[in-house]
Amino acid sequence: MNNALVLFSGGQDSTVCLAWALEQFETVHTIGFDYGQRHSVELTCRKIVIEKIKAAFPAWGKKIASDTLIDLKSLSAIADTSLTRETEIKFNKNGLPNTFVPGRNLLFFNYAAALAYRLGIKNLVGGMCETDYSGYPDCRDETLKALERAINLGMGEDFKIHTPLMWVDKAKTWDMAKTLGGQPLIDIIVDETHSCYVGDHTTKHSWGFGCGTCPACELREAGFTKYKAA
Q: CA angle, corner 143, sides to 17 and 175, nearest 5?
């Protein structure tokens, strides 16, 4: 079963994970989610990134199969967060930023597994990381190992959840992109991907588009600065 399904948002991390999967597997499918996110521009970016990768890397392009977009807008109806509401981004009393969408990654992998079940795919790939991240509990390695076991028990399957960025900081994520696809992949990430929580895809920086002040932009900029200084 040399195939994979990548959780692909159109952001930096998921783009690097897509490149990683294209190096590892013979056939790669992608899945994205419209959960009523404030930064819905990423849904447009993800299509552009896929086409840019196909054009820049023909060998990878031949491996890219289906892309599926799942409507999960019901999540925004029950999640009171700054990613699903036009509210100020700040930290809650529990120490987590209010950009945390409870259950998001858990739902993403459950839907991905259901699609993988139909397509006969055993490998699920996500860009979760607990090295440089905002403290989201559903990004932790422990969470995803438990989720993998629960999904396999519930579906009677043997899925493998891959998180190639789990122990990689943002600077090394840029390094990984350079190793996988050289400057052409770096250029695609800078010019086409979207990470900004606010949804600013008009303000351009050396590291890409974004407001420059939200947690996602700060992590991306700091990683890029460290990567360029190395």
A: 25
